[in-house]
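Self-study notes.
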Amino acid sequence: MKAFPFASLVLALAWMQPECAFSQAIAGAVHGGDPAPKDTVRSYNICFPADFELRTCSIPPAPKILLDELGECDVLAVQIEESKYRASGDECFKIFRTYTVMNWCAYSEECGSREDQVFVVNRDAPDFDGVLGEGVCVLVRDADKNGYPEVYYSNDLIADPGELVAIPTPCKKNAHPLWRYTQVIKVYDVERPVVQLVGAGTFSMNSNTCKGNALVRFQLTDNCTGPIKLEKVELAKGKGGALVAPASIAPGWSWAKQVVSLGGGLYEVAINGLGTGEYELGILARDDCGNVSLQTRIPFAMVDNEAPVPVCHHGLSADLMPAEEGNGMVVVWASDLVASPVYDCHGQGPETQEGNPGQKLIRLYSIHRAGELADPEQQSLIFTCEDAGDSVLVELHAWDTLFNHRFCQTYVHIQDNQQICAPLAGVPVAGVIETPSGFPMGGVEVYANGENPSMAISDGKGKFRFAGLDKSYDYSITPFYDKDPAFGLNVRDLIMLQKHILGLEPFTNPVQWIAADVNRSGGVTVTDLALLQKVILRQKDHFPENTSWRFLVDGYVFSNPEQPLGELFPESVDLNNLITQDTSLHFVAIKTGDLDESALRPEFLDDRNRQYAARAFQWPDRLLRRGEMFQMPLALPEGLEGVEGLELELQVAPEKARILGAKPGLLSSDQYSVDYRQELLRIAAALPENRKFGKDPLLYIILEAQADIALSDLWRSSAREVPGMLYLANGAVQPLEFVFPPFAGSKEPMLRMFPNPFQEETRIVFEVETEQDAEFQVCDAQGRVVLIRKRRISSGVQEFFLRGEDLPGAGLYRFSIRTAEGHFTGTLGHIY
């Protein structure tokens, strides 16, 4: 028998007279003859409905009960309650619909409570043939008008003397009982629940880890009421592939963590760490009647939408060679423009990136004139005399094996040193572009705007040339470069800008003013400082109101060098009525935000870094378990003085850990940033003067381990050669090194539990120095021992596993581990 209640519904037609439509028909009830005299004080009929079955698990029809008020004072009211029970037979469940009817004119509180006055009508009435629930009419008559009416159980509305039944005598005259009858509705269901896709489709993988995370939503629906249980979740690789446990394809997958019920039959399943390709999620569901859904496959795909980014040489010179008569030709190959190797999850390989074997070397490149359609099979470009003297913009495209591609733009300067080509008509114009310190700048686009506009690009020596501009026209020669906004910028620039704003060390030349006007507002304020910091932290990839470089015409004399932004200084050269050649144009390239003029000076950092030995600061090492979250304080060595700024990049290997975020310490949140795509933390901070450092952390890094690993093994080199730098008040820079003392150096015992609280399983990790015996004991909240384990353990890090099924139930537990070296204790929470 499975007859136990699992839901209760109350349908409150509470003590109200039903609509007259209910009194027109009732199963088995027939009006006829003279049912009752009209002059009696009490005379009424109640017809309770018969049991019935629902074969489609539809909503049961509304209750129908016949109430006839025939006496001089009869006011009948009904209350209906429904309770749902699991089935005892082949039906899915039963609904017990209980009707309680009272006559307001015959109800007396003197006879006790309402329940005390209830009389239950036998479900075997009216014929008492052993078949229950056929429906019955209760006919109440008071023919002799003595106030104690007679009661008949009938299958119609005619009171037959043979249908008279005995009921308890009411406590007083004209006080009738309340009538109660239970109707049983059997509900059958053979329809399967249905799994419907809500959200899946295509997901993008992480280009750094070469893995991706999918989040699939689906809806479980059923024709019947009651809960629908998610029975099974499986995963297949490839369309129509074999369905297996998700953990066999996505290691570490667990039902408890990756399956989330959103309510109302809506589920969300996360599958992490998938490679590219097609997948199918297999879902089985079971309804409350035991029907199981068809195996439903939900397709989704993990795709690589990231294209490799090539690195171009900043310009290339090519000399024409003799070809057919009167013409020259030179072939430039895509490989000629590759400045450094790049790697991608779907590179051609077989070489891989150091420290990240999932990244393979890109070998397929194509070359195109700027604006042309990219074609992976175009490996070279041919230049002829038509290009002589020009700097031709070209695109270098890098392709992965999925034919994702991106490009970098550079130029090829075509020279005719052997004078193969016919002389060009027109007037040559040329010049040079250099930084304030005299370092040449190549790759700058120089525009000759006028009647017949033209464009040239400066070469590696900073030189540019227009082979032949049309005579007698006006031209404006304007350099332009707006790439790599963070190039050449560092914390020293922040320090110099901050000191100028505070009036401590004002700028000494117009170039610094121009570089410091980061937002190109015509002034230097804290807004420029905030924007510069965002660019250094890579929180902005461009200067919103400015270009990465500005170009001042060399030789311009400012009328007020101490306030140069107040005048319109020239950033182009006007050539009016061009007649003769001009090859003496000279522009000064000013990097926006670069106050220490370190841009394009590779020796700058080398020189200053050699002034001081590296400063080391220590983080205590510890063991992290897969899935464990850890808040790591980042503090500088104690006793440091004369530090004006700090610059640091820390990157974790994504297959080993994730950076979940950071919290401020001595630094404010605008002085650091987290690049979650690259698992990279950046710090760029100008510090208050005379700051002395103690034990207080600069900030806290929040990590989640992706494998069982020591904290010291998480970190890897970032894109920078120097992992960190301290900027000192005397202008020098001191490199930073990080040291993790080994476990053996720690005097504090290591003990961790993860997860805690737990549902299925938890791990208890501790460390001992020598091989010895250990006893693991668990007690419940009342101090009773519920589990004891003993074993011989070796030296080093040890583990005890505790499963939820090993414990008597949910609750708090205290555990202890006894060894020869010490006694470890802790508290665990077990949840369902």
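Second protein, same conventions, sequence then structure:
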Amino acid sequence: MIQIFNVGAERMLGYAASEVMNTITPADISDPQELIARAEALSAELGTPITPGFEALVFKASRGIEDIYELTYIRKDGTRLPAVVSVTALRDAQDSIIGYLLIGTDNTARKEAEEALLKAGALQSAIFNSANFSSIATDAKGVIQIFNVGAERMLGYTAAEVMNKITPADFSDPQELIVRAEALSAELATSITPGFEALVFKASRGIEDIYELTKIRKDGTRFPALVSVTALRDPQGAIIGYLLIGTDNTARKLVEAEREKSDLRLRDQQFYTRSLIESNIDALMTIDPAGIITDVNRQTEALTGCTRDELIGAPFKDCFTDPARAEAGIKRVLAENSITDYELTARARDGKQTVVSYNATTFYDRSRTLKGVFAAARDVTERKRVEVELQQAKAAAESASRTKSDFLASMSHEIRTPMNAIMGIADLLAKTALTPEQDKFVQIFRRSGDNLLNLINDILDLSKVEASQLDLERTDFSLSDHLEKVMEMVAPRAQEKALTLVCEIAPGVSNDLVGDPTRLRQVLLNLLGNAIKFTQSGSVSLRVEPDEDGAVPTALRFTVTDTGIGIADDKLVRVFERFTQADSSTTRRFGGSGLGLTISRRLVELMGGRIWVESQVDEGSLFAFAVPFEVSVAAKSPVAAPVGAGPEAPLPALRILIAEDSPDNCTIALAYLEDTPYLVDVAETGVLACQMFKKGRYDLVLMDRQMPAMDGLTATRTIRAWEKANGRAPTPIIALTASALKGDRESCLAAGCTAYLTKPIKQEVLLQAIKDHSAVKTPTLPGTDALGAGPSRAAQRLADRTPAYLENCRLNVISMLAALDCGDFQAVTILGHNLRGSGGGFGFQMITDIGAGLEQAADVADSAVSRRWIGELSSYLDHLRAGGRPH
């Protein structure tokens, strides 16, 4: 046990004397593994087993053997220190061991010194023997005394070839030695000889010297070297030689050369990029995420009237008349990464304002860190001006087209009146007793009258098509019945010329179709009429089959073939042009205006189809067109029995909800339904319609598409959701809209509507739709009209209400002008929409057309065009008040 623990031990080991005395042995603060190793070593050395622990520390001293050893002590805080320990046995007067004295010293410093010396020696050896460094030592005169492996490898000489024979100047570039000597001579104001003196002169004066020099290898090749020179001195400070350590500088030179090339390329790229930026026609700028401009091009300087230096560091938003919108634009780019066609008005220093369209995107550095926004602004002032002019020109063209249509309609009416008289008198004369010569004259009257009447009809149809005023119907029709009527109409002319007339429908063609049978008949009559007109003998045939194109599965191809005079190849491309025939002589020989094929082409294209011709002179022609049709729902159900075929029940008393915000349209619908057994409720808004539907049990809903608060499609979706939630079967909902654009029908059906009708709606169409789509379907009694009292009484009721309707239109004129004065375009849009839907129902197609124009102009906030339409409405109402005819 420890009996004495001096101050040095306390300081060295961190224990207080009281903590260890009579408590532990020195073995308790020694490294256990080292004690085991020491016990094993002593056991082997002395040939006796020695226990690891205190015995291993003092065994030699207990045998009178001097013992000094190294051991690792463990301090109280757990840290370790190397110690040198001297152990002596303490004996009494009888020479018996009464204890041991252990004197220890901290060996840390010596260990560190030993390691440093080892490292220094290793470093010195590594440097001197390194193959990467040329180490050359000379005597005071410069003769090489040491030439290491690195020098041999670098210069190509062996040590034996140079030691005690040459100086380092002998494999240095002579010209560089001369230049160095001159430079040092000038710098140090002393004459220095080119040669070895030039290499070591600074070092000989105690000046640190590192320089670049070209070395010449034994084989004559050259390389750049970086040389460090140190003077070697004896203890008295006298120079006894020089140490020159050199490194091959080739790699660094190459790196520097590449860096220079890279820098040059970078400068070229920067110049090229800047040139691109400056040559751009757009005003370009970069903005940091805080909205501060970081760079601009000259176009931006011209746009703002400020220099680049003035703009860099300025807020982006300050360059515009609406700073808040400009700032919002930057925030939007940062949030969405880009914006397109964002319009702002730039304000120059002199007050000039320019409308610009911005395209902007975020940009990042190589580490994908956001650096800011790159924005390009294009001056769109001229484009805006052109757009306004185009809108004005479009409005003027539309106005001119309407004027032309009005003129043609008026002239048609004025011409038809005397024409009817002429043709009527001609018909009456034909029935009287006439001489052959008189009969010949009357027949000329009749033929000329027919030709003139056909020409008037063709011109009117062409005018309507070109003015986009010709609307197609969508109605169910029987293809076979329709073709039968067409063939009946052309048969007399074919019989007069003894031509064979053939009509064939290919197998698989659906008979029940949905489309516009009137316009289909017009095209067929034109083509068949032409075929008969230009065929003197032989046959004219019509064939209907599925279209081979296959792009539209329900498209049908109608082919009219004749054995007539044919058309020359160079004339084929012109046969569909206005007032054009393949040969001008045909006009004199066969008659005609040259409008029939033009109208046919326009009608086919209007129906979504295509038309073409093939022909051989003197062999005949083939005119074909393909038009898409829908297959009627009736085609999937049994054919209904004819009227009066058996006992049938009267119309059921359906409860019908009309959702319609226009009082005029409500008037029309109620007039149509007044003589039916239907019970009708009216809701002025979509919200009210939903509320009424949920409270009452309705058999059918007539839903206007455009209403305030909630539109018809939203109301339909709401009703469908409520029905589903409450386990109710879907109630038929028929959409009513003044719009008939492409996709409207699909939108209505997608929202949950059962059917779709376009305003103005005819009474028979509405009644038939209610009958077809009502949940309760009961046939009528024999001999009765399934559609109620008939259109005549409804027409009379509408006629009775017409003065009130026209007065309401006058009030609408006042309301719309007031709305425009305060910029309320939404009110004008709604009123225009209502006029569009109601005018035709009361028999005023012009009011419907004006309403459509008003709705379109107000929807784009075009005040000038809106006022022009309101002016036309006011003039038309004045025309009606003065007793003018509706048109």
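Instructor comment on the second fold: Confidence is low (pLDDT under 50) at residues 581-593, 636-648, 778-791.
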